[in-house]
């Protein structure tokens, strides 16, 4: 789960199948939708969401920004 406090996000599916979920915290409701090739979804600014490749293709990988920046072995000087 993550959010984008400064902008909305547009998800466009060019291949395969994506599972997208978001939480509407004001109503305590979770929405889950499979998005097919050619479909799109908009996540409004600040909305908690995630997307997952559930198609039959290999996953392109995932890099979580927090770990990329802060869980590394860069010198801290």
Automatic annotation (TrEMBL):
The keyword Zinc does not apply. Oxalate binds at residue 4. GO terms for molecular function: manganese ion binding. Mn(2+) binds at residues 2, 4, 49. The keyword Secreted applies. GO terms for cellular component: apoplast. This is Germin-like protein. It comes from Eucalyptus globulus (Tasmanian blue gum).
């Amino acid at each position: 789960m993550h959010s984008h406090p400064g902008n909305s996000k547009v998800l466009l599916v060019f291949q395969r199948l994506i599972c997208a979920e978001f939480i509407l915290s004001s109503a305590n409701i979770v929405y889950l939708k499979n998005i097919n090739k050619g479909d799109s979804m908009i996540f409004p600014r600040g909305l908690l969401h995630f997307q997952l490749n559930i198609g039959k293709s290999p996953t392109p990988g995932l890099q979580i920004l927090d770990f990329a920046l802060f869980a590394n072995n860069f010198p801290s000087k």
